[in-house]
Amino acid sequence: MARIVRRRRRGVRSVGCMIVRASETHLRDGVEDEFVERLVELVSSFPSRYPGMLRHEVLVDDGDARRVQYVSVWADEVALEDYAGPEWRTSPVTFPDEERFLTCPLELRHFVSVDIERV
């Protein structure tokens, strides 16, 4: 049976629990291509700069190109904190002048991986 790992207490760092971090933004009309191009340029070197990053991708909503997600997968909380800082659960990582593209602040969510065993 799969086991869901609950959120850890503050101050306790988890090792060995893969974390998926999703930052979603809603863009102003007409800036979609510029934003995605800039985001890709800024994050392309992240896997070599942050050893605990397992993979990452930029997702553009198929039905509304103004909705964009940056999704990154981390080996554990230690790796994620090395990237995003001690307030990684609540503080998104942004780039300079990002707010000019956005209609509202970034929405930040974290998910833990649940192993699926095949019988």
Give structural notes.
Strands 2-3-1-4 form a 4-stranded antiparallel beta sheet. The protein has one domain: Alpha-Beta Plaits. The protein is α+β, with helices and mostly antiparallel strands and 119 residues long. The protein is globular and about 40 Å long. The chain has helices at 32-43, 46-49, 77-84, and strands at residues 19-26, 53-60, 67-74, 107-112. Mean pLDDT is 87; it is low at 1-15.
Number of strands: 4
| Terminus-to-terminus distance | 11 Å
Overall mean pLDDT stands at 87
- Given this structure, which CATH class is correct? Alpha Beta
Number of helical segments? Answer: 3
The main sheet comes to:
4 strands, antiparallel
What is the domain tally? Answer: 1
CATH topology: Alpha-Beta Plaits
Q: Radius of gyration, rounded?
A: 16 Å
Strand content: 25-35%
CATH architectural designation: 2-Layer Sandwich
Q: Determine the structural class based on helices, strands and strand pairing.
A: alpha+beta
Query: What percentage of residues falls in helices of 4 or more residues?
Result: 10-25%
Strand order of the largest sheet: 2-3-1-4
Sum up the overall morphology in one term. globular
As residue ranges, the low-confidence spans are 1-15
Output the helix-strand order: EHHEEHE
